[in-house]
Amino acid sequence: MRAALCSLFIAWALSAQTLPDGPGKEFILSQCTTCHPPDQFTKYHHTPEEWQAIITRMGSRIPGAAKKDLDTVLQYFVTNFPKVDKPEDAGKVNMNKATAEEIATGLNLTAAEAEAIVHYRETHGQFKEWKDMLIIYGVNGKKIRDRQDKMAF
User: Fold this and answer.
1) From-to residues of CATH 1.10.150.280 in the chain
2) What b-and-e string marks burial along 136-153, b requiring 16 or more CB atoms within 10 Å of the CB?
3) CA end-to-end distance (rounded Å), the chain
4) Taking each helix axis from N to C terminus, what angle separates 100-107 and 111-124, rounded to the nearest 10 degrees?
5) φ and ψ at residue 75, rounded to 5 degrees
6) In this predicted structure, what is the pLDDT of residue 17?
7) Can you give the pLDDT at residue 15?
8) Cβ burial 92-108 (10 Å sphere, 16+ → b, else e)
9) 20 CB contacts (<8 Å, ≥6 apart)?
10) Which among 25, 26, 27, 70 is positioned nearest to 51, based on CA atoms?
11) What are the start-end ranges of the E strands in 4-96?
12) What is the pLDDT at residue 43?
């Protein structure tokens, strides 16, 4: 039991080193890592608006979290883990930003299919991958699968 606890602590300490230093890191390590492993944060890259939504949602789960602390954490994530457009996404249709017309034109979908995609995105939030669109009523899943290489998220 003692060895297991020691190993767990060492693993936590090593993964905590993966987070860059800066204001907000200590709060994250003391509050957020009770549910999330520290190295998990390095995998996410979001826009400031996306980080704000996440901090607002998760911050409400931390008893007594001060707005000042949450603002510091927001700035930490925005600074250290920004969303960047990948060079390999150039020329692709960004499924989280494109209009229905851009989706229809860029992916050769019908106007109705493109509008259904935009409506679903506005109602349920952003897509993480092409498979997220397979459940949208009125959209041909085969077309989505065949055009996945033309999509960015």
Assistant:
1) 88-152
2) beebeeeebeebeeebbb
3) 44
4) 130
5) -65, -35
6) 66
7) 45
8) bbebeebebeebbebbe
9) 80
10) 70
11) 93-94
12) 83
* One-letter amino acid for residue 14 of the chain: L
Dist. CA 78–CA 71, nearest whole Å: 10
Rounded Cα distance, 132 and 144, in Å: 10
User: Is the pTM for the entire model greater than 0.70?
Assistant: no
Q: Mind listing the pLDDT tens digit of every residue in the chain (153 residues)? A: 444 444 344 344 444 568 999 999 999 999 998 888 888 888 888 889 989 999 999 999 999 899 999 999 999 999 998 887 677 777 899 999 999 999 999 999 999 999 999 999 999 999 999 999 999 999 999 999 999 999 998
Contact 97/50 with Cβ under 8 angstroms? no
Token pair 């992916």 in the structure block, residue:
107
Cβ atoms of residues 36 and 77 within 8 Å:
no
Pick the CATH number of 88-152 from 3.40.50.970, 1.20.140.10, 1.10.150.280, 3.40.50.620: 1.10.150.280
